[in-house]
Amino acid sequence: MPTLKTLHYDVIIVGAGINGCTSAYFLSQAGLKVALVDKTGIASGGSGAAGAFISPKFSKEGPLKELMAVAYDEAMTFYTTVLASHTLLKPLLHMSQDNPDESISLEQSAVVDARSACETLASGIDFYVLEVQSPSYVEEEWHCEDLRSSHLVLTIGAYPKIMPIDYVGLRGIWGHRIDITTSSDVPCIMHQYVSISPTLNEGVIAIGATHDVHYSPFDPFAIYDIEAGRAELIEKALKTLKLNNIKILKDYTGLRSGSNDYMPMLGSLVDAHATLALHPHLQHGKETDPKEFVYYPNLTMINGSGGYGFVLAPYLAKRLKEYLVEGIPMDKMISPSRFFSRWAKRKKS
Ligand SMILES: Cc1cc2nc3c(=O)[nH]c(=O)nc-3n(C[C@H](O)[C@H](O)[C@H](O)COP(=O)(O)OP(=O)(O)OC[C@H]3O[C@@H](n4cnc5c(N)ncnc54)[C@H](O)[C@@H]3O)c2cc1C
Prior knowledge:
The chain has helices at 18-29, 46-49, 63-81, 114-122, 226-240, 272-278, 309-326, 340-348, and strands at 7-14, 34-38, 53-54, 87-95, 103-112, 126-129, 136-138, 141-144, 147-154, 170-181, 189-191, 195-198, 205-208, 247-259, 265-270, 295-303. It has 349 residues and is α/β, with parallel strands linked by helices.
């Protein structure tokens, strides 16, 4: 039952990290009425911790590298135009860990000020501090507390799922990075064991980040050892470049959200219960065209960008806008439904 406070939107976006903020930006620019909600605040998750280096993927050939190349080009254009004052352009030197003499350099790459970039993208958009527990679809509208919308977008990263979508293969990867000062010169962005880079703050050097798949901030018994994290970062940075008189200014920690197959996710979400009721043979491993699955109406998720969330966000948000505003179908290769058949089969056993 709508209350006097009930507010109606075209789209509610849950999660105000770089994916939520970039989506909110693209959709509101396209004329949609957007509500952006976050349980803590803008860039309070993995996005607020990111070094936000905008780099292409240098490793193995394949579909991920191809997608990343397109995303990288779109990201460079996006950050240097929409967020120029939050973006520092510098040459990039990418050195192999196995063979330090092997390196790739780019004349120009970028490092973004993560927090101010998210805040700028979200400015002018209705923002609510709200923890969404389990959104419901009633009478052709999504309900998130007193907010209503035709379409719902979930961009909650590695946080606990708020819909019954166990089949979506995601894992949290804890990361730690630091800002330092040093009397040594850091002339460009360097990637090797960790990244070392100048930042928009004159004289401040960013070092990041660690990758820890064992620690989870959601485990009440787990304790994160910040001193060990700092020591690891400095030790790895020193293997690339001699840095004198290091003074640590600030620590940043947070979770990346990686997909099980490393590809990002943009797409509709399968209603597992309804789909298994309609296609029980899926539990016996019988192939079914994903077109035959039952999907939640007007619900899209962006997730699984791993350590490349800032590179991928403009690409994914633009595709979301094209889907919602222009009716252009989303790429099946990155649909979260790609995990469903295998999950359904395993569920049986
Ligand atoms: C240390 C570190 C360094 C990194 N460096 C880089 C880098 O150099 N380059 C790069 O491209 N990427 C980098 N990344 C990865 C990048 O930060 C992530 O891929 C990106 O932040 C993912 O953004 P997101 O919007 O999907 O999720 P998040 O930023 O995690 O945002 C999710 C948001 O959802 C909110 N939320 C969760 N549940 C609810 C709920 N129930 N109701 C309401 N709100 C909810 C959370 O409060 C949070 O703000 C780094 C990450 C880390 C941790």
